């Protein structure tokens, strides 16, 4: 199996972890590094590329339902809720990045930059 691009991984993770379906912007807004705890307790450094998703729906059933709490909030509220400096900066960039997408016409079916629709 070929290695997935970061936007394909973001699309899959959004569905698995939160049931989110939509269109993913191919260009990431940045990266976040953190210490990932493996099943054996070992901690390894992981880098996550962050992509914007135009949400079209949220599924009731998804693989990791019940494993974490989620809620909708503004990017400013999200930045306040995290301690990691690089993640905080990514959340703070979201309004400007969304503005750029809207100016470029990022809408359903109209833009060549986002990934294909997530819906199967």
CATH topology: Nucleoside Triphosphate Pyrophosphohydrolase
Would you list the SSEs in sequence order as H and E?
HEEEEHH
Q: Which CATH architecture is right?
A: Alpha-Beta Complex
The total strand number stands at 4
User: How would you describe the oligomerization state of the chains in this entry?
Assistant: single chain
Content of β-strand = 15-25%
Number of helices: 3
Radius of gyration: 15 Å
Main sheet overview: 2 strands, antiparallel
Low-confidence stretches: 109-120
Task: Please tell me about this protein's structure.
- There is one protein chain.
- The protein has 120 residues and is α+β, with helices and mostly antiparallel strands.
- The chain is built from three helices and four strands.
- Strand 2 (30-37) and strand 3 form a beta hairpin.
- Helix 2 runs antiparallel to helix 3.
- The two termini are 19 Å apart.
């Amino acid at each position: 199996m070929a290695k997935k691009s970061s936007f394909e991984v973001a699309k899959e993770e959004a569905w698995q972890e939160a049931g989110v379906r939509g269109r993913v912007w191919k260009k990431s807004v940045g990266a976040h590094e953190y210490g990932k705890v493996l099943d054996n307790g070992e901690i390894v450094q992981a880098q996550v590329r962050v992509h914007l998703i135009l949400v079209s729906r949220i599924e009731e059933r998804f693989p990791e339902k019940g494993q974490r709490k989620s809620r909708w909030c503004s990017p400013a509220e999200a930045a306040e809720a995290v301690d990691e400096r690089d993640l905080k900066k990514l959340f703070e960039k979201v309004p400007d990045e969304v503005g750029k997408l809207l100016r470029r016409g990022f809408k359903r079916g109209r833009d060549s930059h986002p990934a294909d629709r997530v819906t199967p």
